[in-house]
Write a structure and sequence with these properties.
The chain is mostly beta strands. Helices cover 7% and strands 28% of the residues.
């Protein structure tokens, strides 16, 4: 007698996977952690030996650099030292590898010897130079560094550049367009190698007067382009300055170009980010212009 054939409609469902089903893949946590660690090491090496991003937090390098500027700093132009390593993971030291001396007019990153934060300043004197400041003008090796008055520079007022009265007294104005601007008195300063750039000098203050000193071997003298609001080599350490000439082993790189700039209006809302970008400040070179011939008089 034949058994009835099953239609499959009421057959019980299988209660387990077939024996030949593939096993669930296991996460190789050791491999994942190793890959992440290698990626972090690669980023650290790139930041320490090739280039890193930098943010301008102060007005000391106006008008060339504004609060909110983002830029790229190259790490290799002057060789490598303890301050080259990002996040200052190495202890301070006086060693240098493949060391070279910055040129006049270079914008460099420096770590003050009493602090750990990076500052950004311009090289205005090199080893062996004699430098003084007389009425706000650099006197280099007995010769005044030329400063040529330029038309006032009108910078738009924004959250990152408010042009406050206590900082820039009497300099806030209004452009014909109706926009508030900071009308900055600027001068074109030209160093002996022809490096030329704009500086701001609108006050007579103590840092405008400095007796002559000689820069030791292995040191450079640094100043901010905003001469009235820069704690630099003219300012003692207790005044948050650099305390005189700076050793080359405290210089960690050279500023190359801006990437973008924010006016301070951005919020956590992504829709505000595009509107906070400043016009005309993306990918601008930070290398000083070079005059046709050597400067000095």
């Amino acid at each position: 007698m034949n058994e009835p054939q099953s239609t499959g409609m009421n057959d019980p469902l299988p209660t387990s996977e077939p024996d030949d089903a593939p096993a669930p893949a296991k996460v190789d946590w050791a491999g994942e952690i190793r890959a992440l660690a290698l990626m972090l090491v690669a980023v650290l090496c790139f930041h320490s030996f090739v280039a890193k991003p930098f943010y301008i937090p102060s007005i000391s390098m106006m008008p060339g650099l504004l609060v909110g500027d983002r830029l790229v700093v190259s790490k290799y132009p002057y060789g490598f030292n303890w301050s080259s390593v990002s996040f200052h993971l190495l202890p301070r030291g006086t060693w240098r590898l493949f060391g070279r001396t910055p040129e006049y007019g270079d914008i460099v990153i420096v770590v003050p010897r009493n602090r750990k934060e990076d500052l950004i300043k311009r090289v205005v004197a090199r080893p062996g130079d004699r430098i003084a400041v007389v009425n706000g003008q650099i006197v280099l090796n007995g010769k005044p560094v030329p400063q040529e008055a330029q038309p006032p520079l009108e910078l738009p007022v924004d959250a990152n550049q408010p042009c406050e009265e206590e900082t820039f007294p009497g300099l806030k104005g209004r452009a014909p367009s109706g926009r508030d601007v900071c009308e900055l008195p600027v001068y074109r300063e030209t160093l002996p190698n022809g490096a030329s750039y704009l500086i701001i000098d609108h006050l007579d203050q103590s840092l405008d007067h400095m007796p002559e000193i000689t820069i030791p071997d292995g040191y450079v003298f640094l100043m901010g382009d905003n001469r009235d609001h820069s704690a630099d080599s003219r300012e003692p350490l207790w005044g948050n300055g650099l305390g005189g000439p700076v050793p080359l082993y405290d210089i960690g790189g050279r500023a190359e170009f801006t990437t973008f700039s924010l006016n301070g209006s951005a919020t956590w809302n992504p829709l505000s980010w595009w509107g906070s970008l400043r016009d005309g400040r993306a990918f601008a070179s930070l290398r000083a212009e070079k005059a046709a011939g050597p400067a000095g008089r």
